[in-house]
Amino acid sequence: MKILHLEGFSETERNVKIQEIRQNVLQAVKELTVNMKYLRPPVQLANSESQGSLDFICNIDTMDNYTFPKEFYDHVKRIWEDEGIQECYRRSNEFCLMDCAKHFLDKVDEIRSPDYKPSDQDILCCRKKTCDIQKIEFEVEIPKKYGGGSQLFWMFDVGGQRGERRKWIQVFDGITAILFLISSSGFNLKVREDPDKNQLMESIELFQDVWSSRFLRECGFILFFNKQDLLKEKIASGTKIVEYFPEFNTYNLSLQDRDSEEDPNYHRCRCFIRDKFLEVTKKPQRNMRLSTTEMYYDLNKEAKNRKCYWHFTTATDTENVKRVFKDIHHMIIMLNIQAITPT
After folding, report:
1. b/e string for 181-194 if b means 16 or more Cβ within 10 A?
2. Which distant-in-sequence residues (6+ apart) come within 8 Å of 34 by Cβ?
3. Which pTM was predicted?
4. Is the dihedral of CA 166, 154, 130, 85 positive or negative?
5. pLDDT tens profile 169-228
6. Angle of helix 70-81 relative to helix 51-58, nearest 10 degrees?
7. Is residue 120 exposed (0-12), middle (13-18) or buried (19+ Cβ within 10 Å)?
């Protein structure tokens, strides 16, 4: 949103991201080296000369206050080039590895430079746990056919981790629309907080809870099936979703989905994932009536006209996000117009 609607990232913000990106490098290489021995079968270094670098990385016992000496980058580069570590990376669905690992480990030489300045793409790929509710404000022009002028948007970013969800109630009041992000490439990955739980299944169950929340009955919903680039790469590499969701075997594309220029295997997979979430919106809501001394409020009645919009997205692709948010702005403006139109 800062790139699309504000003035982009300031020099101060880019400088802050340098440390966060270097911490991403450290976290990624630590996750790879620590999990080698836990894979079944375990992975060994291909080059015995990399052992010293492995020992160096494993002996780093701090993450937040690490100073990143010159030799750190030498060891990271040597480890990342080892075929054993590459094999561990290829099997990263068997443990939790941050999805930006390859992006940053491939450019260690650039990141180590004292003159390094993160690009917009680097900042978009950078991962940092969202612990606080973050708010961004921006204005969007309203088309003349709807009266012209501008619409002020407030967007709140809330942490998706299990321990952060209890804070969501703080921003539920007055919300016009929920933007629910799904990691589409997570169909074969595990939840960081629960290694026995499939990431995509966790998302489906969380969406069920949010969609059914009595606090959000009047909200519009937009589903972002994100990380389409990673999903496409994963399918092209031969990873099969049917091994994690057996019902994919009997899944058939609808007529409107059959006309696509995308790779057929990838397209069928992304539509299957989308439909798993849309099934939630089609389930009949439990009829609930809240009573006061003066009135009855039928929550089931409010649910009848709810709509759920969806988009296939790649959040690191600014042009893709720009097109998607143009549609979303239009939808929210229409929701606001409907809210003030006499019935």
Report:
1. bbbbbbbbbbbeee
2. 58
3. 0.76
4. positive
5. 656 667 778 888 999 999 999 888 888 899 999 999 999 988 988 878 878 888 999 999
6. 120
7. middle
